[in-house]
Write a structure and sequence with these properties.
The protein has 79 residues and is an alpha+beta fold. It is built from three helices and five strands.
Length: 79
């Protein structure tokens, strides 16, 4: 067991880098989906994207292992 469990948590900028340098808006869309008022169409959130493990002072932190697993799966799908 990890003596310091917070060492496996990473902030949003690190998540964006691991996921291929995505923008903050893309991260938001992956978590929440998107609604386009011009077309009236809603895009759902990315189903297998991990939710933040903790929120500390309004900052989100993810499990590094879950984010890396997600990113590895997307690389395999893209190949």
């Amino acid at each position: 067991m990890n003596p310091n469990p917070t060492s496996t948590l990473i902030p949003a900028p690190a998540v964006r880098l691991i996921c291929g340098g995505i923008s903050d808006m893309t991260l938001y869309r992956w978590l929440n989906g998107e609604f386009d008022p011009r077309t009236g169409k809603a895009t759902p959130p990315v189903a297998d994207f991990p939710k933040p493990a903790r929120v500390i002072n309004r900052r989100r932190y993810w499990s590094r292992a879950e984010v890396e697993r997600f990113a590895a799966g997307r690389r395999v799908d893209a190949a």
